Amino acid sequence: MLDTYRAIETPEGVELRLRAAGPVVRSLAWMIDLLIRGGVYIVLAIVLSKLGKFGWGLLLVGLFLIEWFYPVLFEVYRHGVTPGKRAMGLCVVNDDGTPVGWSASMIRNLLRYVDFLPVLYGFGLISMLLHPDFKRLGDIAAGTRVVYRDAKTKAAAIPAVPARPPHFTLNLEEQRAVINFAERSRELSPERMEELADIAFPNSENQRNSGISQLHATANWLLGKKN
Amino acid sequence: MKQQDFEMQHEALWQRMERLLTALDNQRKTKQSQPTGDMGAFPQYYRQICHHLALARERQYATYLIDRLDRLVLDGHQHLYQARGFFLSQTLRFIGGGFPALVRAEARLFWLSFALLYLPALLMGIALQYAPQMVYTMLDHHSLVSIEGMYNPGAAHIGRERQSDGDFLMFGYYIKNNIGISFQTFAGGLLYGLGSIFYLVYNGLILGTVAGHLTRIGYGTTFYPFVVGHGAFELTAIVLSGMAGLKMGLALLSPGNKTRLNALREAAQISIRIVYGVVGMLLIAAFLEAFWSSSQAIAPAVKYAVGALLWLSVAAYFLFMGRNRAA
Questions:
Q1: C-beta atoms of A57 and B173 within 8 A
Q2: Is B91 touching A (CB cutoff 8 A)?
C-alpha cells in the first residue's frame, strides 16, 4: 500500500481509503481555475464596460466575488470540486471524508492568502511538502484535505482458460498474487509473463507457456469461474 | 465464498445503490425534497455495502471489485453524513444575537485589536500636529496631494471626484478594497498573529496620518462629516477581523491543554463566523460610504447627528444583543 493512502474509519466500522493529492496536480488544478477566472474577468469586462460607470461598479463587485468566492461556491455546491479540480480528478473533503460545508470552505479559501505569501504559494508549498497529507496552511486550519476522486476501475479480463484447482493449497497472499498475475496479463509482455510464471513453476522451462496457462487456470478457479 | 458467486449474489443490490446515488445527485440539483422510489432504504443499503466491502477486503477479492465497493461506500458516506444547513434561519439567528455574543465572548481580544488600530492612529494624529513633516513617513507626495484635493473645502466634490452615476462605481470599489483588506487582516493571523497585528497597526497609522494631516491644514470640516457615518461600521469591522485573526494566532501560541492543531482548528471555526459578521458590516459600510457619506446635499450637522447615532447603534448592538440567549 502506498503511503499517500489515508484510512478513515466510518461509524459502520469500514475503512474509507483516501489518496492525498500532491502539490503538482494541485497547482495544475489551480492554474486551470486561474485560466477560467481570467476568461470570466475578460468577458465581464467587455460586457459591463458598455454600461459606463455603473458597469464598472458592477465589474468591481464581480471581481471581488470571483476572486474570493469562486472556489467556495464550487466546493460547497459541487461536492468539493472546482472545474480545475474536476479536470485533474481531485476533490476537497473534510478530514473525516464528509463533504465540505460553508465554514470549512471559507476558512481554507480565505487563508489561501497566507498560503500565497511570500510569492506564488511559497508558504503553501512548504506546508504541503512538510505535511504527510500534503495540506497547505488553509487545509490545516479548516480540517480539510484534497484527495483523488478515483476513476472507475474496470474488471480486468482474465484469459478464458478452463478453471483448474491448484495442485496444493495456496494461502491468501499467494491466491492474491495469482489473481493479480492473471488480471495483468494484458499489460505484461509474454517474456515477462514467462519469467514470472517460472518463479511459480521452475521446472516447466521446456514447455513454453504451460506455466502461464496453469496460473491463469488457477486464477479462474480461485475466482469461482464455472467451466 | 468465491468472488464470482459473491458478485452474482449482490450485484442487484449494488446496482440499486448506484441508481440511488445518481438519483440523490440529481435531486440535489433540482432541489427536490420529496423522497423518490426506495430512497428510504438508502441507509440500509449503505450499511450492507459497508459489510460487503469489509468482506471483500478480508477475503482479498480482486482490486476492481474492492475499488467499486469502496466508491459506493465513499459516495454513500458523503450523502449520509453531510451536514444540512438551514441557511435563512441560521443567518437570522446569527445576526439577531449569535454574532454579538461571539464578540463579547472574546472581549479581551477585541480590546487588544481595538488598541492596535486606534493607538497608533491617535499617536500619529497627535504627532503630526507638532511635527507636520512626519506625514511623509506614511504617504508620498503624490498621494498626499490627491487626498488634499479630495477633501478641499473649496472643491466642488468631496471624497473621490465623481458624478452621481459614479456612486455605484465607488460602491464596487469600496467592496473590493475594504473587504479584501479585512480578509487579509484576518488571514494574517495564521502567522502567529503577526499578519493581523501588522495590518491593524498599518491601517491605524494611515488613518492617523490622513486625519491628523487634514485636521492640521484645516480640512477637518469636510473630512469628518464624510467619514463619521460609515466609519462606525468600517473601522469596527477592521477591528473585528483583526480580532478574528488574533484568535487564530493566540491558539497557535498558547493552545492550552489541546494540541496546537486542534486548538487552531477550533479557533478557526469561531473566527470564520466573526468574519461572516465582518463581511455584513463592510457591505453596510460600503453602501453608506458610496450613497450617504458622499452626498453633498446633506448638511454636516445632520451627518454628525446620524454618524453619532450609527456609532451608538453599533456599540449597543455588540453590548446588548443576544444577552438573553443561553449561549
A1: yes
A2: no
- Give domain limits for chain B: 3-80, 87-320
**Spatial CA neighbour of B111 closest among B282, B236, B256:** B236
B88 and chain A: CB distance < 8 Å anywhere?
A: no
Domain of residue A183: give its range: 172-223
Last residue of a domain, one of A148, A182, A203: A148
Whether residue A164 is contained in a domain is answered as: no
Tell me the sheet residues that pair with A99: A93
A79 touches chain B (CB under 8 A): yes
- What confidence tens digit (pLDDT) does each residue in B55-112 have? 888 887 877 788 888 888 888 888 888 766 667 778 888 888 889 999 999 899 999 9
Close Cβ partners of B125 (under 8 Å, ≥ 6 residues apart): B208, B209, B211, B212, B215
For residue A161, being part of any structural domain is answered with no
| Domain count along chain A | 2
Please give the residue of chain A at the shortest CA–CA distance from B73: A16
Contacts of A58 in chain B (CB under 8 A): 168, 172
pLDDT tens digits for range A6-55:
888 877 777 777 888 889 999 999 999 999 999 999 998 888 888 877 88
Q: Are residues A135 and A75 in the same domain?
A: yes
CB of A183 within 8 Å of any CB in chain B?
yes
Residue numbers in B near A140 (CB within 8 A): 261, 264-265
3-state helix, strand, coil in chain B (%, to 5): 80, 0, 20
**Does residue A118 have a cis peptide bond before it, meaning omega lies within 30 degrees of 0?**
yes
Considering the domain boundaries, does residue A160 fall inside one?
Answer: no
Inform me whether the pLDDT recorded for B164 exceeds 60. no
A108/A182 same-domain check: no
Burial of B91 (0-12, 13-18, 19+ CB in 10 A): middle
Which of the four pLDDT bands, split at 50, 70 and 90, describes residue B256?
A: confident
Q: How many CB pairs under 8 A join A and B?
A: 159
Cell numbers linked to A142: 479548516
Residue A154 inside a domain? The answer is: no
Instruction: Indicate whether A186 and A119 sit together in one domain.
Output: no
